[in-house]
Amino acid sequence: MSRVEEKIFYVSGRPIGRPVNRTQSIPVLVQTHSLTRIRAFKRWMKSHDFDCSDALEIVDDGCVGGGISVRAVCDLKEGDLVATIPKSACLTIQTSGAREMIESAGLAGSLGLAVAVMYERSLGPASPWHGYLQLLPDRECVPLVWSLREVDAFLSGTELHKTVKEDKSSVYEDWREFIEPLVLSGTWNLDPDRFGVEQYFSAKTLVSSRSFQIDSCYGFGMVPLADLFNHKTGAEHVHFTSVTSSSSSDDDGDSDISYESHDGESSIVNSNTRSSGKDDTNLEMIIVKYAEAGCEVFNTYGIIGNAALLYRYGFTEPDNQYDIVNIDLALVVRWCSSAFSGRYCRARVSCWRKLNYLGSANQHCEYFEISCDGEPELELLVLLYIIFLQEEDYEKLGYMSDALVNLDESTAIVKLVKATSNKRMKMDQETSGDIKELLVSDNVCFALSSLADLRESLYGSSSVEEDTKKIERCCDMKERKAYHSLVLRKCERLILGRLRDYASKRSSKKKL
Ligand SMILES: C[S@@+](CC[C@H](N)C(=O)[O-])C[C@H]1O[C@@H](n2cnc3c(N)ncnc32)[C@H](O)[C@@H]1O
């Protein structure tokens, strides 16, 4: 996974879609057409030994984001088993007819799975997955397939702007490097019209929005039926569980199945590392929360923020309590260089890097997370604290930095603050875990506010109030791209506002 993807995926989120009653607005012809497709899918499931309870109804009648959804026909109670899905019926690199081609080309991850999807689609009714594939949209409306003009118009200043632009070009490069040669070689008789760059982008959107991590044997793939449930984090009704009938298997017992969160950046697979396949295992869908008859039955795609939801699934959640904003290290450096000399700034940043308090996941931290309630990440506070150290304290820090590197985070910070400030810390402050409070001096608070302003200036001149008005005027179904981009932007700006509150509360506290 690249750094930009990591920045987008390792965020938290809680989307709750707004129920929209579309029934009256759907032309009868479209409904009939989708009914036919749903029936064909049900026949396909039957012929592939799916066991789908009559208590679930697959509908296309105007769910949260449009498209297909699943409803409860009767009351569903916790523990009810509502579906059993044979793993062998999932579309993965291993189960696809393109397996040999994909593996011999050394492809894996989302690239390999996208090729498997394109391949099965190219077979039309001859594909063993035709009954499933015919129910899927051509592509998901994620920013990857927006035009560059739309990306610039809707995403400027947001977490996604740069990422999506970079992604568009790297997905194109992947196609040119790995897929075009497969077509041109003639070895696999691939129809160029089915393996073009457009088809690859479409397949990538389906993989991004519908793939699950199945198990170590099947890897990740498309799980028919499981991928028809819409998302509601923290309020989902259903979980997917992997059931292994063989006690000698790696996957003894049950384990929850999650939506695939890695983009399979490594496109080269070592075929020796793949374990031998077992077809005697199923996925089970179990109700984890009571669902009333007639209600939509939701799954969860994980705890992710709005940027990740929009990036991967094409929608956002206005009250996403797991939303975050990232502040790039580059932005901190820019702000620092405006207040101090470039040389001063470089020295302080490299001192901070040397201290390496950052924990293993963040060792090469290039951005700092601001949580939904406006709380900055500890590493940002450490950096700002170091930036504002008086020269003599900074020198002291230089002498003691080697001794701090291998300490645990809290101990190192207590020692750092003790050595470099006049504060007399009480023992309870040292041990209460309230480490951040030790670092938020008035200067640090001032810097946090300035950073919030600088980060917000990236959105251009419109205010949050103007964004709110635009959202009210916007239809989330008809103007999907504009609507969800505005929600993303507004939520990011609200978090930046809370960061300012965080800073001002703390600086005024000190003045009391
Ligand atoms: C795994 S599919 C779910 C089934 C999908 N509705 C369909 O028509 O097949 C994921 C897609 O459903 C839509 N979706 C799921 N949950 C949503 C929500 N809470 N709000 C808006 N759209 C949602 C998004 O388009 C997303 O990319």
From TrEMBL:
GO:BP terms for this protein?
Answer: methylation
What Gene Ontology terms describe what this protein does at the molecular function level?
protein-lysine N-methyltransferase activity
What EC number is given for this enzyme? 2.1.1.-
Keywords, sorted A to Z: Methyltransferase, Nucleus, S-adenosyl-L-methionine, Transferase
Residue span of region Disordered: 243-277
Tell me the compartments it is located in: Nucleus
GO cellular component terms, semicolon-separated: nucleus
State the InterPro entries in the record: N-lys_methylase_SETD6, SET_dom, SET_dom_sf, SETD3_SETD6_MTase
**Segments forming domain SET:** 54-302
Tell me, in one coarse class, where this protein mainly resides. Answer: nucleus
**Family note:** Belongs to the class V-like SAM-binding methyltransferase superfamily. Histone-lysine methyltransferase family. SETD6 subfamily.
Function, please? Answer: Protein-lysine N-methyltransferase.
Q: What is this protein called?
A: N-lysine methyltransferase
